[in-house]
Every structure is written in structure tokens, then in C-alpha cells.
Q: What sequence folds into this?
């Protein structure tokens, strides 16, 4: 049975370790001087590892104490701590979903509508928040399932005494409308039905009597009205009657909200409506978008303590520019307008995104920057410009991935130098060179390419930053599933950049085994790659850093390089390219240098990386 004391111990431990991890991460970005910084990162590694172990222990204690079937006292104790963690923003996908699902079944069997409502709200939020715009169909449907379950209980509204639980009805409607309708195709045809049902419930006598003056619920109703405008993203897909309803909605919202369009949502929805009804041309819309971004949206002040306000400014400019990207893709857009938009808007906002400090709204900025890159990169004229933008805007904003990428880049370059000396044809295809003579003649170009492969191989992890940054506990199956898809996410980010095609196979194939029988993704066919030796080199370099990491991994201590070398030899021919492994093993000097960089040399690279991260926000 879960006692009050056990539940409280779990809550205090989990919350305390959450704060502890944040405190030590902040210290890394504050300390000056390499010696002091190295001391901090060593201490942090020990602290985080201990916190990880403590969280594993208390989670195991509470799950083992939950009887099967659940009793009321145990369920209530666990429900209390989950609610506290959720509403105090110490929520965590795995803790919330693994414990919350058990409670949901119990309270449904008891007909406890209040707790079912709050649990469904919690579970729906955690699922949609984890997967975000990367959600596949199954997970989109999983998130909507919880919110639909809430809505199905609306007839019990008058029976629910807790106003927090009653607010869950409107939270559910709002989340189905936005963001889930953006990702879930099945919601789009019924989004207006969901909206009308929400307004009908709100205006019903029973709800007005209970909550007509409840300011929190009134604020949520206002948010529902605003979030309906976001269907502008897919309104062209809707039937004519729904498009007409959208135009009416924009007009009504404009009357209600004349002087209060802080997010810029009404501005963008009105322009979308004007385009569809042919009230404005593409040229006029691009001019208005440019004017708003250049002159009307306040410039974010990243030193201001009010991060939310400044993030709103940045998001307004970001989303307004995305409407511009949609317009320049229209057939009726002139080349002159496309060029001017790039010069006026894209250039300014790309610089603005790059000026955002790492500590500013960190998690939200990962997605903002990833989305921006995918559209803005078309204005980069050269491969080098696109690579630099990708590294600066995405990889550098993810410390764990950035440091790992730096390590892989340097390890790969060390090994590649020796490969070019001994058997250059292993790297056949690098930079379009297929003979030993050409590879050696263009040695520096090939080595530069190998280094870039190391820097870009894990770009897909930048799309799942919350999972990569999870250091408080062991990853769950869903999170491991997302990590296994990071090669596909990476390819998705850069797939439209033809000049980055030399990196496609490295990004997509570096987790497949040499014999093609293992690893991921299953869809990657190594036999069709023109740079498979390069991919195999990055695979070995990736494994070398991961296995010897002595500072960044919370669940294990890194291995000595020579211990790893035996594992590489054991996997030669199956997991690893046997000729590359042999070259490493037979070169004592290379082994010594690889041992140095994966042990004491790691500190210097980590320090350089964090200094680089601190420059985010600089000119």
C-alpha cells in the first residue's frame, strides 16, 4: 500500500532532483575560467548520477507499493502527488503516464468524474507535449483520445464540485482545436463541430450558473476563440461551408478584439481570409507582413526578466514570417517579391533567431529554430552557408548533442587521416572522389567533409531535445522509440536542401550495422549509398564517444578507450567496418591519441563547446 509518507518522499525527492539538475546546468553557463569550469562539470556529473539513482529508487518504491488491484488510499496518495507535480510544472511524461494510466482505470471504475477529468487532461497534455509536431498518427490519436474522453463527460458538468476539474472540459476543447488539429488529420473535418460544441456548453444555463463569472474559465473561452483562428494553417483544405465559417469567425473576432492582438494571430488570420476571398493580392499581403515584422512588432529584449512577453514578440514575428513563406510559394508571387522578402524579412529574423541566448525559453526555442531553418535555408546561397546556419541555429542550441557532435567530428577526423594514408578507397565517394589518387589529392577537402559529417550526423536529435535532455531517470519505451527515429527526423529537417545531399546517408544511416542486419532505421539500405565507408566511419566514431563518455551520461560511467577497442574488434564485420577497426587497432599512435581525446582531452572540448553556447545571443 502507498502510505502518505512514501508518497511525500517520492514527491520531495523527484521535485528536489529536478531543481538540482537545473541548478547545476545553470552553473555550467555561469562559471568563468577553464579550471573552475572543469571542476564544476566533474562535480555536476557525480551529482546528476546520484540524482538519477535516487529517482530510480523512489519510483521503484512507489510502483512496487501500489497493490494490484489498487485500493482507494493508495490511489488517492498517488493522485495527490501527480496533481501537485503537474500543476507546479514538475511534470514528466513517463512518471505522469505510467502512474496516471493506472489511476485512470481505477477512478473510472469508481465513477469519480472529477479525478478522471483531471487525469485525462494531464495525460492528454503530456502525450501531445512530448511528441509535438513530430507525432505520428498513432500518438496524435492517443492524445486526442484523452481529450475526447473528457468531452464525453460533459453531461456531468453540474455534478462536479471542483472548478479546476470543470475547467478541464474547456481545456480539452481548446487542445483539440489547437495544437492537435494542426497535426491530426482526423480532427480537421470536425474542428468547427468541436468549436460549436464548446460554445454551446459554455453558453448553457447550467454552466453559466456555475462558472459564468469564473475568470479562469472565461480566459480559456477567449483562448478557444483565438485558437480557432489557427485553422488558417489548413483552411484551404476544408469544405466551402467551413471556409465561409472561417471568414465569418475572423470578422467577429476582429470586432471583439480590435485593440488586443498581442500574438498577431488575428492579423495573420485576416490576411489569410483576404487572400482566399481575393480581397488582397499576394503582393499586398507580403507588403503588410514585411511592414509588421520590420516596424510594428517590438524587438525582443533578451535581458528583460519578462521572458514570456519577449517570447511572444519573437513568436509573433516568427509566425507572421511563416505566412510570408506560404505566400512566396504561391504561383502568382513574383520573383521580385520573393527576393525582397528574403532580403527584408528572412535576413532580419534569421539574425534575430541566432541572437537568442541559450537560456531564453530554452525548450520552446528548439522547435522554433528547427521550423525556421526548414523554410529560411532556401535563402542560403551556398552549401557552407546552409551548414553554418544548421549548426548555429540547431546543433549549438542543444548542448548534449553539440558536445557529442564535436567529439564525433574530431574522432572521425583523426581516424580518417590514417584511413587516407593506409586505405583511402574505404572513403570512396567522399566529395565525389572515387579513386585513391583523387581522395589523397583532395585530402583537406575530404577531411573537412568528414568533420562536417560528424557535426551534422545527429541533427535529428535537435527535434527531440526534451528527450535528449532527460537526465532525471531512465528513458521509457516511448522515448527510446523517438530516439531510434532521430535519423529520420534529421533527414526530414534537411531533405529539401539538395546541396546538403552529401550528408543524407550519414544522417540516416549511422545507426545501421555494417552487415545491414541490425540497427535503425530499417528503411535504410546501406548497399545503395555512395558514401557507405564514410557512414561506417561515423558509426565507429559515434560509438567511440558514446561508450567512453565520462561526463555527460547519468546512468553509467564511461569505458576506457582500450576496453572499447576490444568491443570494436569483437563487432568487426557485423556491427562495424572491419577494415576501419583494423586500421585503428594496428596503429599504436592513433590509439593513444584516441584514448587522450576520449579521456582528459574531453574536458577541453566540453569547455570550448560551452563557451560557444554562451555566445548564443552575441553579435
A:
Amino acid at each position: 500500500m502507498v502510505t502518505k509518507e512514501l508518497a511525500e518522499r517520492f514527491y520531495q525527492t523527484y521535485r528536489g532532483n529536478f531543481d538540482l539538475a537545473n541548478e547545476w546546468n545553470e552553473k555550467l553557463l555561469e562559471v568563468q575560467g577553464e579550471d573552475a569550469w572543469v571542476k564544476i562539470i566533474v562535480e555536476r556529473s557525480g551529482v546528476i548520477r546520484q540524482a538519477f539513482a535516487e529517482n530510480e529508487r523512489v519510483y521503484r518504491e512507489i510502483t512496487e507499493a501500489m497493490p494490484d488491484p489498487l485500493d482507494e488510499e493508495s490511489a488517492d496518495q498517488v493522485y495527490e502527488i501527480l496533481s501537485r507535480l503537474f500543476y507546479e510544472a514538475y511534470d514528466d511524461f513517463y512518471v505522469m503516464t505510467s502512474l496516471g494510466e493506472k489511476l485512470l482505470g481505477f477512478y473510472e471504475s469508481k465513477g469519480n468524474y472529477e479525478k478522471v477529468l483531471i487525469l485525462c487532461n494531464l495525460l492528454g497534455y503530456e502525450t501531445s507535449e512530448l511528441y509535438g509536431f513530430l507525432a505520428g498518427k498513432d500518438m496524435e490519436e492517443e492524445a486526442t483520445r484523452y481529450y475526447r474522453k473528457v468531452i464525453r463527460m460533459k453531461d456531468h458538468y453540474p455534478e462536479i464540485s471542483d472548478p479546476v476539474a470543470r475547467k478541464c472540459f474547456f481545456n480539452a476543447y481548446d487542445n483539440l482545436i489547437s495544437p492537435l488539429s494542426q497535426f491530426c488529420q482526423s480532427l480537421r473535418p470536425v474542428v468547427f463541430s468541436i468549436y460549436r460544441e464548446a460554445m454551446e456548453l459554455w453558453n448553457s444555463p447550467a454552466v453559466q450558473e456555475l462558472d459564468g463569472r469564473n475568470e479562469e474559465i472565461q480566459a480559456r473561452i477567449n483562448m478557444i476563440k483565438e485558437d480557432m483562428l489557427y485553422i488558417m494553417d489548413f483552411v484551404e483544405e476544408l469544405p466551402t461551408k467551413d471556409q465561409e465559417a472561417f471568414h465569418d469567425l475572423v470578422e467577429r473576432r476582429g470586432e471583439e478584439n480590435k485593440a488586443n492582438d498581442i500574438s498577431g494571430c488575428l492579423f495573420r488570420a485576416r490576411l489569410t481570409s483576404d487572400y482566399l476571398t481575393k480581397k488582397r493580392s499576394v503582393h499586398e499581403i507580403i507588403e503588410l507582413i514585411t511592414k509588421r515584422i520590420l516596424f510594428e512588432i517590438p524587438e525582443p529584449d533578451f535581458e528583460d526578466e519578462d521572458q514570456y512577453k519577449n517570447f511572444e514578440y519573437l513568436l509573433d514575428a516568427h509566425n507572421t514570417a511563416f505566412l510570408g513563406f506560404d505566400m512566396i510559394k504561391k504561383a502568382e508571387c513574383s520573383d521580385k517579391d520573393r527576393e525582397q522578402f528574403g532580403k527584408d524579412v528572412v535576413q532580419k529574423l534569421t539574425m534575430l533567431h541566432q541572437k537568442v541566448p541559450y537560456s531564453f525559453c530554452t525548450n520552446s526555442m528548439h522547435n522554433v529554430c528547427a521550423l525556421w531553418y526548414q523554410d529560411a535555408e532556401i535563402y542560403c546561397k551556398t552549401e557552407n552557408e546552409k551548414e553554418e546556419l544548421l549548426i548555429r541555429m540547431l546543433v549549438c542550441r542543444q548542448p548534449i548533442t553539440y558536445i557529442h557532435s564535436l567529439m564525433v567530428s574530431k574522432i572521425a577526423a583523426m581516424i580518417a587521416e590514417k584511413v587516407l594514408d593506409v586505405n583511402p578507397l574505404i572513403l570512396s565517394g567522399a566529395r565525389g572522389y572515387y579513386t585513391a589518387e583523387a581522395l589523397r589529392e583532395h585530402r583537406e577537402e575530404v577531411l573537412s567533409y568528414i568533420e562536417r559529417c560528424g557535426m551534422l550526423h545527429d541533427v535529428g536529435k535537435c527535434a527531440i531535445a526534451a528527450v535528449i535532455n532527460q537526465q532525471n531517470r531512465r528513458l521509457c519505451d516511448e522515448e527510446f522509440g523517438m530516439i531510434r527515429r532521430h535519423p529520420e527526423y534529421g533527414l526530414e529537417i534537411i531533405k529539401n536542401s539538395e546541396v546538403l545531399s552529401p550528408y543524407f546517408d550519414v544522417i540516416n544511416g549511422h545507426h545501421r550495422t555494417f552487415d545491414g542486419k541490425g540497427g535503425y532505421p530499417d528503411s535504410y539500405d546501406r548497399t545503395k549509398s555512395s558514401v557507405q565507408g564514410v557512414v561506417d566511419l561515423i558509426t565507429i566514431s559515434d560509438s567511440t564517444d558514446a561508450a567512453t563518455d565520462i561526463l555527460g551520461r547519468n546512468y553509467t560511467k564511461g569505458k576506457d578507450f582500450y576496453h572499447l577497442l576490444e568491443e570494436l574488434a569483437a563487432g568487426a564485420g557485423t556491427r562495424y567496418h572491419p577494415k576501419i577497426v583494423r586500421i585503428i587497432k594496428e596503429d599504436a599512435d592513433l590509439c593513444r591519441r584516441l584514448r587522450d581525446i576520449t579521456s582528459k582531452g574531453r574536458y577541453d572540448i566540453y569547455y570550448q563547446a560551452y563557451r560557444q553556447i554562451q555566445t548564443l545571443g552575441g553579435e
About this structure: The chain has a mean pLDDT of 91. The two ends are 58 Å apart (CA to CA). The first helix runs from residue 4 to 30. The CA atoms of residues 165 and 464 lie 31 Å apart.
